[in-house]
Amino acid sequence: MSDLGTVVAVCRDGGHRFSKPVAPSITLIAGLGVEGDAHAGTTVRHRSRVAVDPTQPNLRQVHLLHEELFDELARNGFRVDAGQLGENVTTRGLDLLALPRHTILRLGANAVIEVTGLRNPCAQIDNFRSGLLKQVVHLDADGHLVRKAGIMAIVRHGGRIEAGDQIRVEPPPPPHLPLERV
């Protein structure tokens, strides 16, 4: 696993829509998430989570997705661009799904986020592109559920990030905990 990656695109949306438009830059705010994004807050903002318990801590302040997934999807006949799967940060050069829980990612000059877990994609993905859900969630040969729709994080230190910024990885001390759905 490389410990350096690149920000390919940044996205935000003040409304609860599936896709997010690409922006020239985004600002991360410690303890809240992406400034101006519908999912920013100290408690859950995703509608399904709010319906269950609106007091849950927001472990999904920032959604990161690896651009390499778009390459894989294209080989299977699905064209997807940055922001279309609802991510805030599209990356390249990092195996996001292999990072342990509590990994620190330093984005650009100042922003620091902590990885909390895997994004659990929902059926809305098939509304975006029919059949896409099976591409990003499936059972492996051993019958284990594999989620490939990115990772979630919380903001530890705010800062502005934009395409071209470097991402530096700082794994937590062992033992490393695998990512689980958040």
TrEMBL record:
Signal peptide bounds: none
Protein name: MOSC domain-containing protein
MOSC domain segment(s): 21-170
Pfam families, per database record: MOSC
Superkingdom, natural source: Bacteria
Transmembrane segments: none
